[in-house]
Design a protein that fits this description.
By secondary structure, this protein is an all-alpha fold. The chain has four helices and no strands. Helix 1 runs antiparallel to helix 2, helix 2 (about 40-55) packs antiparallel against helix 3 and helix 3 packs antiparallel against helix 4.
């Protein structure tokens, strides 16, 4: 029996959903006044789309792109969502701190461990 819902298919489908979310958020941002943090959420959605598409391209593209870059983009997604929430509340976000923290954690984990079953799709 063929497994139709493997992780690559689910990642690609989720990435396409984030693409449409990003497009709709860009449209809303261009045509309406939005609240603080909305643009950061829009960029975060684009980063998550890119990361999920790279993950679904495993064994097609080089490992650097499908592991390190994809995880970096997805960790940056988390940092940008956090930054957008902090902006929305009215505090000054520390986007550089959030991005550096999440990206460094991702890169060191990706490069130092031999096999990471949770992050590597085979």
């Amino acid at each position: 029996m063929t497994n139709y819902l493997d992780i690559r298919t689910l990642s690609l489908a989720s990435g396409i959903i984030y693409l449409f979310l990003s497009i709709s958020m860009i449209y809303i941002s261009a045509n309406q006044k939005t609240f603080k943090g909305f643009n950061q959420w829009t960029v975060a959605s684009l980063f998550n789309f890119s990361g999920l598409v790279l993950i679904s391209s495993r064994n097609t593209l080089p490992d650097f792109f499908t592991i390190v870059m994809a995880n970096g983009l997805m960790f940056s997604f988390i940092a940008l969502i956090t930054s957008g929430l902090v902006s929305f509340v009215g505090r000054k976000p520390r986007i550089r701190l959030y991005m550096a923290d999440s990206t460094s954690k991702c890169t060191t984990k990706s490069l130092t461990e031999d096999r990471m079953r949770g992050l590597v799709v085979e």
